[in-house]
Target: Amino acid transporter transmembrane domain-containing protein
Amino acid sequence: MPHFDNFEKKVDEENDIYPTTSIAHGEQRRASVSDAVFGEITEGGPNYRAVGWKGTTVLMLKTQIGLGVLSIPQVFDSLGLIPGIICLLVVGVMTTWSDYIVGRFKLRHADVYGIDDVGRKLFGRIGYEIFGITFALYVIFISGSAMLGIATALNAISSHGTCTAVFVAVAAMIGFMFGSIQTLERVSWLAWVGIVSILTAILTLTISVGVQDRPAAAPQTGPWQSDYKLFKSPSTADAFASLSSIVFAYAGTPAFFNIAAEMRDPRHYTRSLAICQGTMTAVYITVGCVVYCYCGSFVASPALGSAGKTMKKVCYGIALPGLIVTTMLYVHLSAKYFFIRFLRGSKHLTQNTVVHWVTWISCTAGNTIIAYIIASAIPVFGGLVALVGALLGTLMSLQPMGCMWLYDHWHEGKTKKSTRWMFMVGWCIFIIVAGWFLTIAGTYGSIVGIIDSYKASGGSSAWTCADNSNSS
Model:
């Protein structure tokens, strides 16, 4: 984009808040400095601006790559292989542009911490409250989903060793303990473990379905051949639900504001984003194509159950650290939103005072409890999470970013309506309209899925002891 190089240099000079001096063993000592979001940061308090570009990359990856990637084969089964890949690439381009705009907007507006601050700039106090509430609900529901993912893994590994409600409670306690780590810079080290864990589990699954004679859900006697289709004709509700699943797989966008706010050098945001999105898209396409082509309509969802009981235990065992890190990260992000809202502008935000710690632990504990209740108490949880992903995830990942570009660049058209400006205005309008379409259509598809689930099984009970791992 024109003029951004000089602008970024100016912004980075203004926000270069971490002058450091080298000391023994290569460590760094930071001075007492001021940040537009966190205020005065002293050496004795937590360092909220210490995430490097590598840490940023892995945090971006971990907010998006989880069990969501394992729904991609099911999406291809619904849409057909070729339409599935096309839809995935289109959504990938749209969300990557949205993610890019997050970094640009942060450079232009140093006082923005989260998407709620964006809402204030775009629509005033009403926008601040609506965007903030929507973000909080979204990340809390993802936290609950991740807790249920841990419970599913523990059920699979232990062959349903105890009541599922117990496993969910264990997941909540783990999420609270690790989610209470103060800064994303410290969390990023665990995120490396999480992303390696998830990618290894996915690779193991992909190899397993490739070398086995047939998937676990297929008939185990007689000849068998994969019935995958290049094109399919799904119902309207199934197609919309599949699109929603793809968007949800890319819907870490609202969390990118919070990650960018804790970066040491915001100029490296785009570098991290390019690596993240490129890696994610390659993984999604590879896993989706291989698993679906080998399993066909017998693919399990989540796909970790597609390779049989033994490999299911192995894959879930490998993926468990990744599921724990996902839970930890989203508990942290949801708690950090409330924490900064409560203490912003106060010395307690960046100093290890009693008020600081009481507020922080209260936020992590409160969000953990709410996520635990959601994970345990709401029937048809999978359908409800899909509904929240469609209703909140899409709303947080597309429409605001189109508005953000227009907010920063609309004035340029008053002096000269260049071809580039008119194209970008058209693109932003497309993103906003497409975002609302995906929100409404995905919500419709998810509601139909919930209704169908109730018709088939009557729903699931709250605080159930039943095994929630895939039966294959």
